[in-house]
Amino acid sequence: MDREQRDGAIRRFLKQVGIQSHQELEQLLIDAEAEGKLGAEPLQVEMTLSVPQLEFEHKIQGKIGR
To answer: Could you name the domain of life of the organism this protein comes from (predicted)?
Structure first.
């Protein structure tokens, strides 16, 4: 796989991750709000990227403010 193909594959994967993650988080927050589970404080979030064949794992942490 040349660099252009690899970069395209990475972009497609990250686009899929972004879209699916957004949809899941949005529905989670809608449901949690409807159930009265959300407070005024920001929510701690964490995303893990792993490549098992290369024994790689990277965590990204952040907050979703209210």
So the answer is: Bacteria
pTM recorded for the entire structure: 0.81
Residue 24, classed as helix, strand or coil, is helix
Handedness of CA 20, 21, 27, 31 (dihedral sign): positive
What token pair was written down for 34? 């409807």
Q: Tokens in use for 20?
A: 């699916």
Using DSSP's 3-state secondary structure scheme, residue 53 falls into helix
Look at the block and give the residue holding tokens 């879209």: 19
Q: Could you tell me which residues are beta bridge partners of residue 51?
A: 56
| Chain centroid offset of residue 64 CA | 12
Taking the C-alpha atoms of residue 36 and residue 51, their distance in angstroms, rounded to an integer, is 37
